[in-house]
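Deliverable D4.2, example record:
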Amino acid sequence: MIRTPINPPACPKPVRANGARFLAVLLAVAAPPAFAAGLVDNVNGITVDATGRLIRFNALLIDDEGKVQKLIQGKVEDPAPAKAKKRRRGDPPPAPLYSFRLDGKGRTLIPGLIDAHGHVMSFGLSLVTLDLSQTRSLAEAQAKIRAYAQENSARKWIIGTGWNQEAWGLGRFPTAAELDAAVGDVPVWLERIDGHAGWANSIAMKAAGVSAASAAPAGGRIEMAAGKPSGVFVDQAMSLISRVVPPPAAKDRDVALEKAQRVLLSTGITGIADMGTNIEDWQAFRRSADRGALRIRIMAYAAGVDQMSLIAGPEPTPWLYDDRLRLGGVKLLLDGALGSRGAWLKADYADAPGQRGLPMIGDTALRNMMSRAAMDNFQVAVHAIGDAANSELLDAITELSETYKGDRRWRVEHAQIVSPADLPRFGQFGIVASMQPMHQASDWKMAGARMGEARLAGAYAWKAMLDNRVPLAFGSDVPVESPNPFPAIAVAMTREDTAGQPLGGWMPQQRVDFRAALDGFTRQAAYAGFAEKRFGNLAPGQRADFLLIDRDISVARPAEIGATQVLETWIGGKRVFVKGQ
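Output generated by the structure prediction step:
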């Protein structure tokens, strides 16, 4: 006989408020209840095992610490009740079999998905500042900038992100004069969608003291026109403007973090590697966790060795707040991005003769920084997009592996353009390839223009990584791309963009199957952050982080996978998101 169920812990309802009131009300309702042992049954459970094989189950037993106790295959049979003893006055009622029991009603349950590469605070701030990511022309962007400035007339600076000259079909970078035409009386600073270039108006350049005599720092480029800065600053040259831009206040970061969490949870992201954490970000994460408002799990990688030491001191931090936060590594930038022609190439850009991109760290400095982190047992993650950058990084890892032994899991972030001869080298020294499927969907036309088709044999080479036995972790690079992992799973399987182009897939030999795509967003993403014993694929003893979704993605067509809706998100055995609430 089934006992009367006790309802599982409920997700707090959304609170519509602003600023301090928004946070105060949120924290009053978001404090998590105590962990409770429970059973989630009658589900179509799908996960991967320790070897990456697909396995199925029908119920999930959660212990009183919010961890997976057991995956159950088949129907759950309750034990026969013992012969009832005669109750005496004052005896407590019999204990229920489970603290809660949830009937999954046959819905599909999968592990919580993990984004192996994102930027949590940048994403949150993009939700509270000007966002140009959906604009499809320069004129549309100018109109949106103008309207935003009018609606926020008290702001001393207009700050925003998301512009992309490729999406506008502009064929060049925008100019300060074009930004002046939208807003000319207030400084404006807008970062490109990839974060590797910035666009300033004339008054912003004047405030920063930028003139025709200004020199770009090493690893940066000032776009010029008629002998003067044109308004776009690439990679390290962005600092010429950003150094005078007012930083976000702590209360703005707190609101931004909460907004980011809500979006991430609604798309099924239960954990994320935050690439480029600074002390202000870390303090916001800690404030949120101290208030009981940090639901998502954050594997933080410091923005360089100085921030690494400032945040963590002499060694990686322990896991904090029931495995919700840890700083375990450092993120370094070796080159820029393809979109801004900052990715470091072995030969000239096909559409910009004379340009090969920008190495942002010299070879000696790169090795020194990597060594500085490795000697204190911090994990090293290095951004490398161009083929020259990837070759240089592989050389550095090869050299340092002679000194730093053991399980290092050197991370190569992006690994977008790789010389075919270098692909087998990723299979050495425990290297992890951290790659983003949606970049291929967004970039395939641009990559052909930037590189020429003959130089793309090792581009976005997911299947080649697997063939070389490289751990392949998938992420989004949010806010560069949407954090929604389901369209990314579809792209990984098809090599087609969201419009189904090119038909049959771009370089289809690099497609992966559903199992590998799910593995990349679960077990491998956790492994990439040394978290595989704590969460990732619902193995017994891991945190019970899982999703209930509206379709069986193991049998759905890729286009249907991309449209998947998350119905509920659970973290640590607690329900933290319900669709429509």
